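This is your field. Please look over both lines of this record.
***
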Amino acid sequence: PIVDGKRDSLWENTPALVVRYPVPSATSMDATDAAWAMTRLLWDDANLYVWFDVRDMRVSTAHTESWQQDSVEVFLDENYARTRDYESDVGKYRVTAVGNTSGEPDLADVTAAVSRHQQGYRVEIAIPFRAIEPTPGTTIGFEAQVNDDPGVGERRAVMKWSHPTLRSVHDTSVFGTIVLRQVASATGDDSVPSNLPSADVE
């Protein structure tokens, strides 16, 4: 897909992951009022593409720290080692509601775009594979997160896809699992495959 924050046809048939699992230790507001997202994934030989459609009626990036702002985060464990500490293949990436990026390791090759809509914002991210050569059947660790500032100048809620703690900032054993699958493209042109990860929580 073209990383421009706009949902093109390649995303239409991808399975959606619901990022609405509140982290109690980081949520001090009614979780039913907190921002959440539907997330979709695509991949090719070079990148994992992540799409967030965030439902957030009050978008705020007032705080100076990006993790305190309305933002989304992606955690990847490419070699699926599920270690309790980060190895060199692990990455964590954050994109705010206005498109600012942060994280580790080097973000030079990460591409992100944001667009707004009446019910929140959309984020599209391309994250290069750094440690593996992906093929159909490859299993990787994955976590998605939504940070919510409900207009008070600081984060008051965190929503996860897989595990309702903040341990994902250092512990890959709490990541969920995705398995890369390949299907023919929607155009029927098998020479341009649309690659779909299926996603299952362990």
